């Protein structure tokens, strides 16, 4: 086999691998996520943004059910109004009441369900939830989520990965809670941003990464085309 043929095969293989990476990155980014992804333990007067993308090619998202942990509850939860959507908030009696400076809390929000709106194919929506105080007795909070499509399909974002395991197929959004002393300046700055500003920064990062990978794929395909041209030239001679 000629060196030109070998170069062509290698270039084509590399292009295929790069395209696979790009496709995998697109699938991974389609998970329901929480922003920011970390907060200081016991943080007060903050907000979380839950990003819900529509992965279907033919159906729209018509309902989002967010389940908040009650073993380590968020206190003082408020839901930001969202155009076109109606939020139903469910409270639950806590098995273990939480003592605060303002008194003992016996119930907390356990579920928020958004209905009435629509997330079209290839689009996403950000749902904002404010809190008065985060727990300080756990390292992370898991927010299991159910996403219902217009064709009746329900995607259950409820899977949790054990320490050291790979990310599951349908992971639940997870908020890491860090010690106040160990919180970096960057994390503190992110936490102080509004949800909209944080989401905008996340959009910019995702776009930059996508363009970088796309550029790599185009470059590799160009190399493959060059090798193919060499093969044709040698055959003509």
Q: Would you summarize the structure shown here?
A:
With 237 residues, this protein is an alpha+beta fold.
Walk me through this protein's architecture.
The longest helix has 42 residues, at 195-236. The protein is globular. The model is unreliable at 3-8, 11-28, 182-195, 198-202 and 204-209 (pLDDT under 50). The chain has helices at 3-28, 185-192, 195-236, and strands at residues 33-35, 38-40, 44-53, 61-67, 78-79, 86-100, 103-119, 124-133, 140-142, 145-149, 154-157, 174-178. Helix content is 32%, strand content 35%. The strands form 3 sheets. A 5-stranded antiparallel β-sheet has the order 6-7-4-10-11, with no helix packed on it. It has a 4-stranded antiparallel β-sheet with strand order 1-3-8-5, with helices on one face. A 3-stranded mixed β-sheet has the order 2-12-9. It contains 3 helices and 12 strands. It is of the alpha+beta class and 237 residues long.
Tell me the number of strands. 12
| Straight-line distance between termini | 17 Å
Q: Radius of gyration from the CA trace? A: 23 Å
Q: Tell me the helix content.
A: 25-40%
Estimated share of beta-strand residues: 35-45%
Low-confidence stretches: 3-8, 11-28, 182-195, 198-202, 204-209
């Amino acid at each position: 086999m000629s060196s030109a043929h070998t170069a062509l095969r290698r270039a084509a293989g590399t292009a295929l691998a790069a395209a696979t990476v790009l496709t995998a990155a697109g699938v991974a980014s389609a998970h329901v996520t929480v922003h920011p992804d970390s907060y200081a333990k016991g943080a007060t007067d903050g907000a979380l943004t839950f990003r819900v993308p529509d992965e279907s090619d033919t159906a729209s998202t018509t309902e989002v059910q967010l389940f908040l942990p009650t073993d380590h509850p968020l206190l003082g939860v408020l839901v930001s109004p969202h155009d076109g959507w109606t939020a139903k908030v469910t409270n639950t009696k806590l098995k273990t009441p939480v003592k605060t400076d303002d008194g003992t809390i016996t119930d907390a929000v356990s579920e928020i369900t958004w209905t009435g709106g629509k997330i079209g194919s290839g689009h996403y929506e950000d749902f904002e939830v404010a809190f008065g105080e985060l727990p300080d007795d756990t390292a992370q909070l898991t927010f299991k989520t159910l996403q219902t499509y217009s064709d009746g399909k329900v995607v259950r974002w409820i899977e949790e990965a054990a320490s050291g395991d790979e990310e599951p197929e349908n992971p639940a959004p997870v908020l890491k809670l860090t010690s106040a002393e160990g919180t970096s300046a960057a994390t503190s700055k992110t936490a102080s941003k509004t949800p909209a500003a944080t989401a905008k920064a996340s959009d910019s990062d995702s776009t930059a990464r996508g363009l970088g990978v796309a550029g790599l794929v185009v470059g590799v395909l160009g190399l493959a085309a060059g090798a193919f041209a060499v093969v044709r030239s040698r055959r003509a001679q």
